[in-house]
Structures are given as C-alpha cells and as structure tokens.
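Intended use. Records like the one below are meant for learning the mapping from a protein sequence to its folded structure. Do not use them to infer anything beyond what is encoded.
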Amino acid sequence: MLIRTLRCPAPRWTVPFLLLVVSLWFRLPDSYAAPLLLEKPQPYSLAGHLENLVDPTGALTFKELLTAGATARFTPLPGFVNQGFIRAASWSRFTYQPAAHDSSEDLFLRLTPAFLDEVTLYVQVGSNPADPASYRKHDLGDHYPAELRQIRHPDMVAPLPSTPGIPRQVYIRVRSSSTHTLQGWIYPSDQFIGWSANYTTWMGGLLGVILFDLVISALLALMLRDVLIGYYSLFALTFFVRQLGIDGAIFILCPSVAHLINDYLVGGGISLGLCAYSLFVMRLFNTHGERPYVHRFLQLNILIGAATTLGIPLGWYGQLAPVTTICYLLLACFIPLLAYQYLRRGAPAGGWIVMGFSVVLIPAVPRFLVVLGLIQPTWFTTYGYYYGMVLQMVMITLALIKRLEVSRELLLSTSRRTEAVAVELAKEMTGELREALQRQTRFVAMVCHEYRTPLAIIRANLDLLALLQEQDDNIAFAVGKMKRAVARLVEVLEVSLGRVRLSDGALTLRPEPLELERLCSRLLEQATEYWPDRRVVVVAGDTAVVQGDPLLLQTALLNLVDNGLKYSRADRPVTVSWTVVGGEVVVRVADQGSGVTPQEQGRLFEKYFRGSATTGTVGAGLGLWLVARIVEEHGGSVALESSVTGAVMAVRLPLKRNP
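Structure written out for the chain above:
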C-alpha cells in the first residue's frame, strides 16, 4: 500500500545491490570459539572466539555456571553476540592466551555498546578455571555507577592478566531491556592508549558536528519561526542526546548520575527521535494532502514513539523498542522515494534533499537489522551509520537554508508583483470612488428635489431605505444621515398635510370625483409593476364614487397592499375589495399572514411603530401612520377589522354627495 501510494517504485537493481553490500560485511569466520592467541602486539577482535549460553530466568549464578553440566551447554558463535531484543540473560565466554615470548605487556578488554543495562565481567586471575575464587569481578553496565569502575572510559573497559603462554578464561553476563548485543576487543596497553586518543577525537568531532548543526537549525527555527526547521532541530537534539548515551560520553561527562539517566538518553532519544523525524517528513513532503496512507503511517510512528518513551519508566521499553526499530527501518527505505518525487516536482533544494536522505540509506538498513538481531555487527554497521547520519544532517541543513533562500526570493518577487497590482487596483478604486461619489451626489440632489411635493415624500417613505440598502457599497457612510433625514421628512409631511385642510371640510388639493373601480384598477397596475413576483387580487364591488385626491388615495392603498405583502407568504395573494354601506364605501385590504398580536393592535397607526413580524423587512414604521393621516384628511377612517388568519385593514370613505 505504501509503495502504491508513493507511485515511485525502486529500481530493479536495488535488492541485488543491497544483498551484495550485506555479503561484503557479513563473513563467517573459519573457526568458532577457538582460543584467542595473542601472538602480535595488535588489537584482537572477539568475533569467532565467543561461546554463548542463554539463561531465560536470569537466575543462574556464576558458581553454578562453572559446573560441568552448565559448561557443556555453551554453544560457539560465528561472530559477536547479537540476539536482538530478548528479556533473558545470557552468558558469554572466551579463552585468550598471550604468546610465550610476550614481555607481559598489560592487556585491556573493551566491550560495547555502552548502553547495556547489566554487564558483569569475570576474569580468571588464579590457576583453577573451575574455581569461582580464581576470578575477579567487574561491574560495567550502565546501571552501575561509573565512579566505581576501575578504568574510566566511554566504553566498558577492564584490565586482563597477561602472563606469557598461560591461557585465561573470561565470562561475561549480559542483561538489558535494549537490544541484546555484545562486541569486544583485546588491546595491548600502547595500542589501547593510541586507540582511545583517536576514539576520543573522533567521538568529540562527531558530537561537535551534531551540536553545531543543532544550534544552527534551532537558531534558524527561532528567528524565522519556521515549524519545519523546528521539527528538524528537535530531531537533531534527540540524535545528539542518544549519541551521548550510546557512545558512553555521559559516563565521562557526568559519571555520578550516568547510571540514572542513560536509559532515558538512549531510549528516549531513539523514540522521541522517531516522533520528531516523522513530524519533519510530514511537513516537508506535505503528506497530509498528497499521500494520506503515508501520512497515517507517520502518525502511527508518532504514537509508537510516544508510547516507547513512556515505556522507559514503566518497564515496557523492551517490548516496544523492536516496533520502533522496524518503523525506523521502513522510514529509511521509503523516504528516498518521497525525496525523489519532491525533486521531480521542482521543489526548492530538491537535489540536496534527495542526497541527504539517500546517503544514510545504505548504512541505515544493516544498522537496524543488527539492532533486531538479524545479522552480525561489523565496523560498517557501527560507524557507517554514524557517518551517514552526520552527512545527512549537514545536507538537510544546507537544503533547508537553500529552501529559505528560494522562498525569500519568491516572496520578494511576489511582493513586487503584488505592489504593482495594488497600485493599479488603487487607481481603479479611486476612479470607482469618484464615480460613486458622483452617483451619491446626484442621488442626494434627486432626493432633495423630490422632497418638494407631498407625493414625493410618500414615495420616499416607501423606497428610501430600500434604495439605501441597494447602494450600500457606495454610500454606506451616509445611512445615518439619511435616517435622520427621514425623520425630518415626516415633519415636512405633517406641515404639508396641514396645509391641504379647508375651513369647510373639503379638499382643495386637486379634489375630483373618483370611481372606486378605476382607482383600484390603477392600483392593480402599479402593484404588478412594483411586485412582479407577487399576486394582488382586486375583487370588484358596487359602483361607488368618492371625492378626493387620486394620488393621495392611491398612495394610501399602495401602502396597505405593501404592508400586507410583507406579512404574507410569497405564495399567498393580497386581496383588495370594497362594499357600499350606507353613505360610505368600505375598502378592505386582506392578507394571509400570521395576523396581529393583541399587544400590537393598539399601536398599529403610531408613528415609527414596526410590528414584531417585520424582522428582515424594509420599513421605517411610517406606512400605516401615513395611511391614517391621508384617510382622515378625506373625512374617513381606517381600522383593523380582523386578525385571526391574517390582517384585514378596512378604509372607510364618504361617498360623493350630489349637489
């Protein structure tokens, strides 16, 4: 599933090439468990000279081990001890014999790795190899205080007797929650001193490069606030910390507390490193949006790394560490494929990214196989991985710096283009603003002109706020002033209506006989024009003629129709009908809305009052108030006649009297 998601199959020669590389470092010795003859003053490897016995319960004592039955259970090993992650203890032994012509030069035994929990060394110093009293005990594991060691060294080192021609036996007991592996070498004193000096220089240089890379990446992450570099600097920190424990530097730097914290440095550095490395890969290759299966695998890595870290104090590390190692192995195999796709997309610094992830692939795969106990450890599996990781860290850091440079150049060019576009946009906006201001000026002038007549005041009452809403983008800043203008218009309207009164009760403002049927027909035409998507029904009644101003009466009826449409559903009509009762005509405007609440019935004709159901509608609360004023000026009245299944507004007007 992962390979199918990556869509970048490995070349056909990859597997044969890896098998060839494995065959170069994995070579079986000619003989197993043969005595180690120290014929020349040179370092000697214990590979091929070890015998091993597994103690599942860990209860086997050294005295019991020297009995004939236990001695027969030892089996020869083809190389070093490498059993992967096991919870059992194991005993290893070897026999060494200095040359007969040797001048009794001091010998030193060096054992690795330094992170093994419990390593107890029994060196024969007496003449009887079957007598426990003939052995000297050395406690060398990282669970023992480093201050109590006879020789202070990053690795586990103990002196060996060097009587010429006399064979000696050495027993080593190992128990550890981490990978169960053991490597060893015997050095003459001058060789050991020279090697220790070189090793200290090499290890100091390695840690120095890692620390320098860590500082650079951390500073870049802090200064630029780049999350990607932050994840990478966190991974560099975990790698630096675990190398302090793996290489044994902590036993030199902090010998008094090394046995208390080394498990956390090694185990925590490995497991938290998996978390940081997965976060870095997720961010770099954008697996969340482009490769969901890979993204889920990386999320699983984060959970496994966190659980493994918690397993250190809880005692679960030995069970979870193999899973963490397998996750590292899978990452090492498919991340170069992600990097190759990253390069093909033309991403910045793609070449450096590919080289950085590829340079560590060849040493990383055998390294993790050694940790799992599947192959024998060699110099290449031990030190090749370190060199590869240092090269990767340097290349990835350079790639991230190059990526920042490219991003900065892209940002500058984008800002220049944005600036140019902004200038052009500002010019266009300036022109549009001038045009809008001109439209605004013309609009205000038009309103001021139209205010000169009472009819325009009524139309402004109906349309002003709607027009302001449509023009919101251009004259939003004038809405407050326009609202105050509406209040002023009401005052003007009151004065204007007051001027149309006559002392004898008749209308002097263009009074004329009006047939109600013609008045309602004109009303229907205007309603169809104003509300084309709504239905207004006119039901003809008895022939009736009234005396009044056609514009004012038509405006009053239009306000009633508009009010009914606001309170009715879009699919329900508003009906206009009339009847003649006595000496007056009753015009009814009926809607099919929700009706009028009892609390609102007494305030319908108040100035500025808006009903609770007018939420979302346009209006200033002046429509019914204006209707009442116009009808009163014509000697009539208006009232709410029904509000059960809708509102029915009844306008009563006197019929025209014959001379």
